[in-house]
């Protein structure tokens, strides 16, 4: 893919963050999640902050693991999931405490900052692809999204009763 | 982010994002009744649309709030901003771990349901819309980043297969959250499929689509929220871990084979390296 720099800004390449930048960025987005919690839940400002910070801490551990174990080629989202699971297992000594702190955090409100950035990050290149692809490929694209959802749902719906 | 101009851009971007988040959250969840089912509009959807409206790549410079520098900074922030959300999902799996393990075989098998992209979209693309090799890139997977890498590696992104995968990638980026929140809330309100099955189907290997999908499910069936999150989160994690192998070793060979059946006259070698990517092979 050829890069087209305009005013020293090149939006065809994603920026790969250094570890300090990634930590700074995480610290910068946490207040957005906290603000959303204050509106979405009845939590006090302090309890919401504690919950969001605890989730931030899980994210930090996940980021560090991603960088420490690059040969496993798991993305950071996978590591953060795994750390979240281990942090909340009831049979482990810290499980109940962690769930106590993050259990009331509203997950939907937590996704709102990410989607705001997703909308803000659409690049000219992506707009250009959508314009030149033609309506046929756009129709196929929607069918692909529907197909993966319905396909998985049907298989799981048939399989689940067999396990009970 | 060490140049002063970038720092100013970063603050401006964060301020705009904060306003978008607060306004979206204040709007809250809205329900639309459509005959036999219900569609939910979620705050995450308003936030995405507001982001698009304020994005200079889409609308030109609306009020000159943001420039291309801010757009570029927003891109790495998507991944960082999704991490606390993913962490929250992880913490719903721990307490429910026994139910998740009991459903293990269903969770693993439904990963094959991602081949539904081929079952549904390939026949339409090839037999109805008469697409050629674009159909291979467009239908073999849900076209997230790992799929782009696979097609780039096999055929190059400039050939017809690349055009197909890029188009579907962009469709997913632009309308994925809308399609998933509408589809999931609608199907859940029909009450024909097990909500746990729908939750598993939400895990397609994209954080924002999973958010829209499981969010719509949980808002439709609030009494099952914890179960829905645990199953969606587990399925999504499985997709990150296994999706690459299913697409590479099952989905792509399958769609290539189906294409050869549909167009036996198309003799373009299946797995030529990127060297041929500039030629309009199939046309």
Key descriptive features of the protein:
heterodimer; A: 164 residues; mainly alpha; 72% helix; globular; disordered N terminus; B: 283 residues; two-stranded antiparallel sheet; 4% strand; disordered C terminus
Would you spell out the secondary-structure blueprint of this structure?
The complex is a heterodimer of chains A (164) and B (283).
Chain A: H1 19-40, H2 45-68, H3 76-88, H4 95-102, H5 107-121, H6 124-159
Chain B: H1 4-27, E1 30-34, E2 37-41, H2 43-54, H3 56-59, H4 68-93, H5 97-102, H6 104-110, H7 116-128, H8 134-139, H9 145-154, H10 160-190, H11 195-201, H12 207-220, H13 225-262
Antiparallel strand pairs in B: 1-2
Helix pairs in contact in B: 1-2, 1-4, 4-13, 7-13, 9-10, 10-12, 11-13, 12-13
Provide a quick synopsis of the model.
The complex is a heterodimer of chains A (about 160) and B (about 280). Helices cover about 70% and strands about 0% of the residues of chain A. Chain A has about 160 residues and is mainly alpha-helical.
Question: Can you give a write-up of this model?
Answer:
The complex is a heterodimer of chains A (164) and B (283). Chain A contains six helices and no strands. Chain A has helices at residues 19-40, 45-68, 76-88, 95-102, 107-121, 124-159. In chain A, α1 (19-40) packs across α5 and α2 (45-68) crosses α3. The model of chain A is unreliable at 1-15 (pLDDT under 50). With 283 residues, chain B is mainly alpha-helical. In chain B, β1 and β2 form a beta hairpin. Chain B has helices spanning 4-27, 43-54, 56-59, 68-93, 97-102, 104-110, 116-128, 134-139, 145-154, 160-190, 195-201, 207-220, 225-262, and strands at residues 30-34, 37-41. Chain B has a two-stranded antiparallel ribbon. Chain B is globular. Chain B contains 13 helices and two strands; from the N terminus they run αββαααααααααααα. Chain B is 70% helix and 4% strand. Classes of the chains: A mainly alpha (164), B mainly alpha (283). Chains A and B meet through α1, α2, α3, α4 and α5 of A and α1, α2, α4, α6 and α7 of B.
């Amino acid at each position: 893919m050829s890069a087209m720099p305009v005013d020293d800004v090149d939006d065809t390449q994603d920026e790969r963050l250094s570890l300090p930048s990634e930590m700074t960025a995480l610290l910068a987005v946490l207040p957005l999640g906290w603000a959303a919690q204050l509106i979405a839940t009845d939590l006090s400002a302090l309890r919401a902050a504690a919950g969001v910070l605890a989730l931030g801490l899980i994210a930090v551990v996940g980021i560090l693991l991603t960088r420490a174990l690059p040969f496993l080629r798991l993305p950071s989202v996978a590591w953060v999931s795994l750390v979240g699971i281990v942090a909340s297992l009831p049979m482990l000594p810290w499980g109940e405490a962690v769930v106590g702190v993050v259990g009331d955090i509203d997950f939907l409100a937590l996704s709102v900052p990410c989607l705001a950035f997703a909308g803000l990050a659409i690049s000219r290149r992506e707009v250009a692809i959508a314009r030149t692809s033609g309506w046929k490929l756009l129709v196929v694209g929607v069918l692909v999204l529907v197909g993966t959802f319905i396909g998985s749902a049907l298989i799981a719906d048939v399989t689940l009763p067999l396990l009970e | 982010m060490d140049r002063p101009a970038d720092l100013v851009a970063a603050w401006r971007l964060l301020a705009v994002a904060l306003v978008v988040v607060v306004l979206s959250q204040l709007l809250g969840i809205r329900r639309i009744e459509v005959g036999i089912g219900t569609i939910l509009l979620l705050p995450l959807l308003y936030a995405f649309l507001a982001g698009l409206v304020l994005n200079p790549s889409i609308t030109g410079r609306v009020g000159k709030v943001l420039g291309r520098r801010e757009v570029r900074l927003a891109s790495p922030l998507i991944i960082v901003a999704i991490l606390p959300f993913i962490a929250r999902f992880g913490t719903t799996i721990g307490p429910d771990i026994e139910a998740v393990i009991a459903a293990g075989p269903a969770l693993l098998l439904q990963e094959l349901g991602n081949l539904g992209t081929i079952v549904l979209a390939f026949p339409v693309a090839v037999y109805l819309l008469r697409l050629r090799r674009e159909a291979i890139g467009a239908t073999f997977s849900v076209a997230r980043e790992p799929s782009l890498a696979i097609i780039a590696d096999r055929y190059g992104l400039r050939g017809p297969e690349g055009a197909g995968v890029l188009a579907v990638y962009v469709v997913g980026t632009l309308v994925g959250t809308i399609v998933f929140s509408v589809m999931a809330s609608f199907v859940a309100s029909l009450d024909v499929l097990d909500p746990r099955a729908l939750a598993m189907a939400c895990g397609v290997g994209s954080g924002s689509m999973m958010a829209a999908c499981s969010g719509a499910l949980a808002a439709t069936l609030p009494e099952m929220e914890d179960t829905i999150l645990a199953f969606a989160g587990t399925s999504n994690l499985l997709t990150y871990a296994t999706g690459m192998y299913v697409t590479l070793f099952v989905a792509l060979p399958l769609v290539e084979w189906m294409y050869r059946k549909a167009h036996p006259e198309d003799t373009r070698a299946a797995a030529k390296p990127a060297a041929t990517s500039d030629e309009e092979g199939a046309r």
